[in-house]
Amino acid sequence: EAGVTQSPRYAVLQEGQAVSFWCDPISGHDTLYWYQQPRDQGPQLLVYFRDEAVIDNSQLPSDRFSAVRPKGTNSTLKIQSAKQGDTATYLCASSLDGGRQNTLYFGAGTRLSVL
Amino acid sequence: GDSVTQTEGLVTLTKGLPVMLNCTYQTTYSPFLFWYVQHLNEAPKLLLKSSTDNKRTEHQGFYATLHKSSSSFHLQKSSVQLSDSALYFCALREKDSNYQLIWGSGTKLIIKP
Fold first, then answer.
1. Which residue has the higher pLDDT, A66 or B41?
2. Which backbone phi and psi does B55 adopt, to 5 degrees?
3. Residue ranges covered by each domain of chain A
4. B43 — phi, psi (to 5°)?
5. In this model, does residue A52 exceed pLDDT 90?
6. A6, B15, B17, B65: which could form a disulfide with A107 (CB 3.0–4.6 Å)?
7. Which CATH architecture best describes the domain A5-96?
8. Domain ranges of chain B
9. Shortest Cα distance from A15 to chain B (angstroms)?
10. N-term to C-term CA, chain A
11. Which CATH architecture has domain B3-112?
12. What is the pLDDT of residue A39?
C-alpha cells in the first residue's frame, strides 16, 4: 500500500514569495490533515478535510494560507506571502472514517525555510 | 481545555539502559492516548495507542499503560538501542469522537554507544 506522498520535500523562499505544497493521501482515506511542525516541536493542526469539505480551518492564518481538496483526494496548501515565522515542516496526514480508526498516516513533509 | 504535557524535552541515554518518557494529560472526557515516533527527516509514525485503563500495550519493544487515576500514559522500554534515537510525541483524543489529536511538545531521545 502506497503511503502519503508530499511534494516538494524542501522549499527555500524569500519573505513575500508564494509557495504551494501538494499532498496525495492513502487511497480510500476520506480525511486529510495539514499540520505545521516548527523545528523540535509537536505538529500543530492547520486544517482538515473530510472528502472535499473543510471541517476545521480555525488555526489556518486565512490572510495568507489557503487549502483545497477539490475532488476529495489530493490536496494543496498554499502560502500567499511567506514570512520568516512560517519556517517549519508542513506535514500532510490521512485517515479512514473521519479519524475514528484512530490512526493517522503521515507523509514525509515539506521543509520550508523563509529567509 | 484538553492538554498533554511531556516534561522532558531531551533525554540522553547510553545504549542498553531502560527509559521512561513521561506523558500526562487533562481531559474531562474519556481519553484515547497515542505515542508517535519521528526519526530524523521522517514522518511521525504511530507507536502505541490505548483507551483501556490499566492495560499494558506493547509494540517494537516499547510499552505503555494508560492510568486514568493519574492521567498518565508513560512510554517505557527496558533496553534502548541506537535506532531508538528520535522524537517521541504523546497525543490525546477524546474517545469515540472525531475530534482532532492534541499533541504534547515532544521528547527528543538521544542514545549514545
1. A66
2. -115, 125
3. 5-96
4. -80, 150
5. yes
6. A6
7. Sandwich (2.60)
8. 3-112
9. 24
10. 37
11. Sandwich (2.60)
12. 86
Kind and range of the H or E run holding A94: strand A88-95
| Local structure of B15: helix, strand or coil | coil
Is residue B97 predicted with pLDDT exceeding 60? no
Nearest to A42 among B49, B98, B105 (CB): B105
Judged by CB atoms within 8 Å, which residues 90-109 of A form the interface with B? 91, 98-100, 102-104, 106-109
Nearest to B98 among A3, A91, A100 (CB): A100
For B16-41, what is each residue's pLDDT tens digit?
999 999 999 999 888 889 999 999 88
State the DSSP H helix or E strand holding residue B20, giving kind and residue range, or none if neither.
strand B19-21
A103 contact residues in B (CB cutoff 8 A): 46, 49
pLDDT, tens only, A2-45: 799 999 999 999 999 999 999 999 999 999 999 999 987 888 88
User: How far away is chain B from the Cα of A55, in angstroms, using its nearest Cα?
Assistant: 10
Residue type, A53: A
Cell of A34: 495539514
